[in-house]
Amino acid sequence: MRDDFDFDTYLTANAAKLTYYCAAIVGNADAEDAAQEAFVRLWQNLHRLPNEPAADAFLYRTAYRLSVDILRSRNRRNNTVPEREVPEPVGLSEAMQSALMRLSPTDRAVVYSRVVEECGYGEIAARFEKNEAWARKRYSLARRKLEQMLGKEKEHER
Question: How much helix, strand and coil, in percent to the nearest 5, is found in the chain?
């Protein structure tokens, strides 16, 4: 990484955003822990990263993997799927939050990145070490699943 890279400024600028990303995957209870651990691992690996976009991709990829590990650990302990919530500042309806939580962690992360963070497909692909076509397809499939879930909920309301 460049010598002029200021990790403290980077941390301050990205901490809340990364915590919301983690909360969209694991819920509010463990989001801070996952985000903090991701920043620690970024700090430990800065010497391997050539620039800030690489640092961003590494940070989000690490946060995603840590979040999935937390979900797996939680499921092994409880042998149930825990109740999770998307944090309030996202501004999603209850129906949308509920539908999001029924998606896989990967689909939730892709949809959250695309819709809430307004990331491009290239950035999403970098977070998962995939190509842009994968990101487009994954988002399209997840969006279709959400539309089906939300459509079924509207039918039940009638």
Answer: 80, 0, 20
Radius of gyration in angstroms for the set of CA atoms belonging to the chain, rounded to a whole number:
16
The pTM score is: 0.77
Give the residue from 97, 36, 28, 90 showing the smallest Cα distance to 63: 36
**In the chain, what percentage of residues exceed pLDDT 90?**
63
Structure confidence at residue 156 (pLDDT): 55
- Res 57: pLDDT: 95
Q: Could you identify the residue written with the tokens 């999403």?
A: 124
The residue among 38 and 96 whose pLDDT is bigger is: 38
State residue 51 phi and psi, 5-degree precision: -160, 180
What is the CA 48 to chain-centroid distance, rounded? 23
User: If you write DSSP's letter for every residue of 96-136 in order, what string do you get?
Assistant: HHHHHHTS-HHHHHHHIIIIIS---HHHHHHHTT--HHHHH
Q: 107 with 138: CB under 8 angstroms?
A: yes
Which of 96, 86, 102, 37 shows the shortest CA–CA distance to 64?
37
